[in-house]
Amino acid sequence: MTENHTQYAADLEFAKQLADLADSISLPRFEAADFTVATKADRSFVTDADTAVEAALRAHIEQHRPDDGFLGEESGQVDQGSRQWIIDPIDGTSNFLRGVPNWATLIALAVDGKPVVGVVSAPAFGQRWFAALGDGAWKSVRGAAPTQLGVSQVSSLDEASLSFQSIEQWEQAGHLSPLLDLTRAVWRDRAYGDMWSYMLLAEGVLDIVGEFDVKPYDLAALIPIVTEAGGTFTDIEGATSAWNLSSLATNGHLHDATVSFIAHAKESHR
C-alpha cells in the first residue's frame, strides 16, 4: 500500500519535519542523560529537553507557518486561530527521566478545534506513527517504508484487551470501581502507558484504551492516528472531543458497549 495525498498532505509532511527536529534534540539528551529536571505546579516533571524541543518546534512553526496558532504543554497557547499546532514535546517525561524508552514527541494540527494531522515520534523505539484526515494511518520503523495500520476486529468485551493507563487516574476521577468491573469483563488488562497504548490500539494489538486527567496536547496527535486506523476516539462518556480531560479509544466495534458498561458500572456503585 502507498500513502494517499489529500488536502492535509503538505501539513503532514511539515509535521514530519517537526518530528525530525524534535528527535534531533530529544534522543541525544535521553541517551546521554545529561538533562536537568524541575517540578511544575501540578507536581509533574519537566526537563530542559522538554523545553528545548518545544522552543525549537515553536520557532520553526512561527517561521514557516506564521499564520497558524500554537499550543504547547510548556509554553501555553499563542493565537489559537482556525489552524493550531498542538505540541507535547516529550509525552512520558517520567519514562524519559528513568531511561524507559516509552516516550515520544506528539505533534498535531487542529482545524477549528478538530485534530486533522497527527505525528507520534518515538526515537528511542525507532518508531513513528502518523496520519492525516483521509490518508489512513501509518507506521515507520527506523526510517523504513511505512506500513498502513488497522484496528482489530474484536467485537466482544470478553475477548478484548484493555489498557487503562493508571489506576490512580481512574480513582481520582471517581471511576475506580467501574475500572475494576471493566477489567473483570475483558479478556486481558494491562497499563502500557502514555502514547504507546493508543498506538498499539491503532496497530490492532489492543482493543480499548481509557484515561483521565489528559489535556489536548496529550491527545490531539493520537486522535487522527486512531480514527484513520478505523478506531473511535471520544471522552469517557462518548463525546467526541480532545478537550474534555478524559479519553476512550477503541477499535470502534467495542465503543458503544464500553461507554455503556462504564456508565452503568458508575451508576451501580453510587
Mean pLDDT score: 92
Helix count from the secondary structure assignment? 9
Radius of gyration equals 18 Å
Order of helices and strands: HEEHEEEHEEEEEEHHEHEHHEEH
Instruction: Tell me, briefly, the overall form.
Output: globular
Distance between the termini: 50 Å
Q: What's the CATH class label of the largest domain? A: Alpha Beta
Helix and strand composition category:
alpha+beta
Please give a structural write-up:
The chain has 270 residues and is α+β, with helices and mostly antiparallel strands. The chain folds into 2 domains: 9-142, Fructose-1,6-Bisphosphatase, subunit A, domain 1 (Fructose-1,6-Bisphosphatase, Chain A, domain 1, 2-Layer Sandwich), CATH 3.30.540; 157-268, D-Maltodextrin-Binding Protein, domain 2 (3-Layer(aba) Sandwich), CATH 3.40.190.80. It has 9 helices and 15 strands. It has helices at 9-32, 48-64, 93-98, 167-172, 176-185, 194-203, 216-219, 222-228, 255-268, and strands at residues 37-39, 45-47, 69-72, 76-78, 83-91, 104-111, 114-122, 127-132, 137-141, 147-148, 161-163, 188-190, 208-212, 232-234, 246-250. An 8-stranded mixed beta sheet has the order 4-3-5-6-7-8-9-10, with helices on both faces. It has a 5-stranded mixed beta sheet with strand order 12-11-13-15-14, sandwiched between helices. Helix 1 runs antiparallel to helix 2, helix 5 (176-185) crosses helix 9 (255-268) and helix 6 packs parallel to helix 8. It is globular.
